[in-house]
Amino acid sequence: MPLTAAPAAPAAPAADAAADHVDVLIVGAGISGIGAAFHLQQQCPGKSFVILDALDGIGGTWRTHVYPGIRSDSDLYTFGYRFKPWVGAPIATADEILRYLAEVIDENDLARHIRYRHRVRSARWSSDDARWTLEVDAGGTLRRFTANFLWMCQGYYRHDAGYTPDWPGMADFKGQIVHPQTWPQELDLSDKRVVCIGSGATAATLVPAIAGDCAHVTLLQRSPTYFVPGRNENELADQLRALDVDPAWIHEIVRRKILHDQAELTRRSFEEPEAVRAELLDGVRAFLGDALVRDHFTPRYRPWQQRLAFVPDGDLFQGIAAGKASVVTDEIERFTPTGIRLTSGRELDADVVITATGFELSILGDIDFAVDGRPVDFAQTVTYRGMMFTGVPNLVWIFGYFRASWTLRVDLVADFVCRLLNHMDARGARRVEVALRAEDRDMPLLPWIDPGNFNPGYLMRSMDRLPRRGDKPEWQHTQDYWRERSELPAIDLDGPEFRYDRLAADKAA
Q: In order of start, what are the domains of the chain with their CATH numbers?
């Protein structure tokens, strides 16, 4: 089916010698890296920086994902930056998000800092030099960059391949197997029987997008997901626009209202889960009959143990109600030459199978890290608020929220990093590292996240590769924006968990 072309990325200048060493090196030119660059430029105007990205243009996820219907599953009032008003529909297409990011780059003269087709292979910290050295594959040419501080904004999954389980008989299937993350542009689904395996936001986006083009599409899920159907509009924003309110005011007011409502839903999902469950199921029941909701859209887990998937205008359910799509809840026994055999004995005929089965987690870009010649195993570190790691100096990682928009944490972490960099300058420090305090000596070390709190498959498959957390707020990624928006700005940068090294000249004095 035809796909809308993504807007062209701002042209990156040719590499120059001055870019080989910078104060701050940002890895990733997606929504995290662009936001980091904006804040760095605003809050630390004297710092030199460069952004390296392995792709051939901006956008990260929104550039690599080109499957039909690709759209946000967060509202753009909170997924957009706090400094850049969003003026479109709350749920946006990939093209709209790419245009938004390109505007941020153009409006803030950030293009000159970005180097595309620069894939970081290794990062080596030297305490003697107090700097990172990165080996970078620049289109087949090895380049080296050095930096005083490393800001990891590369996202959290591998862009070049998604996760597909190894089902028996896949090699026997005579049709085509496609993962949404590597969608073939030439794929023609006309008159094809399609089975889409999955139950999350990707499947919920794909199925209605292709339902009108193929002969029939079947959503095959092992277990249901909670969905939130609703109109793709924000009544409050529309009212304020009709009153000719300043767009910046609208953006802030609507953000606060959405965040208030999200906080209330999260609270209720823990304190009154059955009531929230009933409300969510009623939302689906407005489109489908009781039997379909009971059999295919009633999850086994508590609301918000996995991410809620927003369905704009209930398009997924409208397609099912109209007979253009169907849903089957069962497990796969094996692939056959003509389709899929289920454990119930039922067989689904298919010409194309789409495996919307998730992605592979990437821990800090799968880069080979070392500190003073010793390889870094992040699974042996303890996370400091999901941003820094014990034993790894001058490095911050952006990992966003599950129950709120990713970009909310981009803004918060950027404030922290800029404040930390300015604090280091004030102290005359070239190195900062986090370390467990005396009172943390007997603190139990736990998996990165409590599976009882949040347990999507991609995290559970990779938990052994993620840093450890403690049982104190400082040593865990709380996933709680409403708490962190107060706690992160109040961090005492002279607290005992921060270890600084002064400039050599100061030590000599």
A: 17-159+361-440+476-508 (3.50.50.60), 164-357 (3.50.50.60)
